[in-house]
């Protein structure tokens, strides 16, 4: 806000009184529109959803975009998923395997790219290592998923 105010002050010195009044009107209109958009986003639920780790249903594989099971998330009963989707692809930082199957984690869609490792049933990772953070794109229950 200080930069905007300073810019307005500099501009005001170069304009006449009419120009200054028009600029104030535009600034006030911009602030009002921004406030209305913010209120509409909150009312309609446009803010990013969050879920606690305890919300991950038994039998699902649950992924989160931030460490410690926070941020945007996807819960899926699929122990094999060839693509986590645009919403979460290359954005996963936390995972909990609540299924009864071991899953293998891949950096690319369709169980390709680099094998990140595996996650036994009931195990979780609260914060992927830097080499695996924001890289998960698919998982399956076999080491060779495409065979």
UniProtKB/TrEMBL annotation:
It comes from the Bacteria. It holds the Pfam family Inhibitor_I36. Gene3D superfamilies: Crystallins. This is Peptidase inhibitor family I36 protein. The lineage of its organism: Bacteria, Bacillati, Actinomycetota, Actinomycetes, Kitasatosporales.
């Amino acid at each position: 806000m200080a930069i905007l105010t300073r810019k307005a002050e500099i501009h005001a010195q170069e304009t006449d009184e009419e120009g200054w009044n028009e600029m104030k009107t535009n600034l006030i209109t911009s602030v009002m529109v921004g406030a209305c958009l913010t209120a509409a986003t909150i009312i309609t639920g446009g803010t990013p959803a969050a879920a606690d780790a305890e919300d991950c249903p038994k039998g699902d594989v649950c992924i989160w975009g931030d460490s410690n099971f926070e941020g945007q998330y996807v819960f899926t009963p699929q122990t094999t998923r060839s693509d986590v989707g645009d919403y979460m692809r290359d954005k996963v930082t936390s995972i909990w395997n609540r299924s009864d199957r071991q899953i293998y984690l891949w950096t690319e869609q369709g169980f390709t790219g680099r094998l990140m490792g595996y996650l036994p049933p009931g195990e979780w990772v609260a914060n992927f290592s830097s080499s695996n953070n924001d890289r998960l794109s698919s998982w399956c229950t076999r080491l060779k998923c495409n065979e």
